[in-house]
Amino acid sequence: MVYDLHGYAFWYLGGDMNRQLYETLDIAIKTAMANMHTSTVAIVTGVQDKTISCQPVIQRTVDGQAITLPEFIEVPPVFMQGGTSYTAHPIAVGDYCLLVFSERCFDRWYDGIDFRPPAEYRMHDYSDGFAFVGINPRAKAITIPTVITQIGDGYQEGNWEQVGDYDHTGRRDQVGNQTITGNVVINGSLTVNAGVGDTVTVNGVTLNIVSGDVVADGISLKGHVHPGDSGGTTGVPQ
Predict the structure, then answer these.
(1) Which end of the chain is more exposed for a tag (fewer CB within 10 A), N or C?
(2) Do the domain assignments include residue 135?
(3) What pLDDT, on a 0 to 100 scale, did the predictor assign at position 131?
(4) CA 12 to CA 28: how far, in whole Å?
């Protein structure tokens, strides 16, 4: 007769000895599974420069007693990255994360060494976890949007290409050049804070900002004169 024991099949021939073998294997398999860590939910308890500290929030039950797991330190967070480009979000104490545990010890890889045996022969161990920050319980779950949505402050370094409409609400500060191809409609006031030596060019007409004066095509707004009706020239504008 064939019995299935947690996915393992063996022949049971009857008798106390085989029953004891069944029970022994059952205990061994359950113990091995209980200590083979795959993933768990944790809460962030500290944020360092490149790692976080976190503590699992799901307790373990050992001999019928609930045990709270200790704080894990120096856990690498996971960010979306390709080449030198990446998207990184701030992490705060109190955030929840999903801890995923490596099959083998990753200490040597983390120190920059590839294609070497693991430094220690532990497997599925709590020491080898990565943190995916950004999971929430039902009460704080993020509503799935219909478009890409970003909430919070942002910082962009590098080129950015936008195809399609762009709606912006709120203040926008920009350092650097901007080129616009197409029409610009401004509903409201426009203030240009140009300094001495700066220029503003509109359709080939350049306004030179010189000591509070505006110069267009070499003619000063404050100091220009006109030919007089009876000869000579007029005075400067008043």
Answers:
(1) C
(2) yes
(3) 98
(4) 18
Query: Does one domain contain both 131 and 211?
Result: no
pTM for this model (two decimals): 0.68
Quick check: is 121 in a domain? Answer: yes
Q: Are residues 51 and 131 in the same domain?
A: yes
Structurally, how many domains does the chain consist of?
2
Residue 21 lies in a domain: no
Q: Is the Cβ–Cβ distance between 199 and 205 less than 8 Å?
A: no
Rounded CA separation 39/98 (Å): 7
Question: Is 151 a domain residue?
Answer: no
Q: What is the pLDDT of residues 31-68, one digit of tens each?
A: 777 777 899 999 999 999 999 999 999 998 888 899 99
Between CA 35 and CA 125 the distance in angstroms is: 8
How confident is the model over 123-137, as pLDDT tens digits? 999 999 999 999 999
The H-assigned helical ranges of 55-131 are 107-110
Containing structural domain, residue 214: 194-238
Amino acid letter at 227?
Answer: P
Select from 90, 72, 88 the least CA-distant residue to 80: 88
Kindly indicate the confidence band of residue 139, based on its pLDDT and cuts at 50, 70 and 90. very high
The rounded distance, in Å, linking the Cα atoms of 198 and 210 is 8
Do residue 204 and residue 133 come from a single domain?
Answer: no
CATH number of the domain to which 128 belongs: 2.40.50.230
Q: What is the pLDDT of residue 152?
A: 86
Q: pLDDT for 12-36, tens place per residue?
A: 555 577 788 878 888 787 777 777 7
205 and 215 Cβ atoms separated by less than 8 Å: no
User: Rounded to 10 degrees, what is the CA torsion of 9, 11, 12, 17?
Assistant: -100
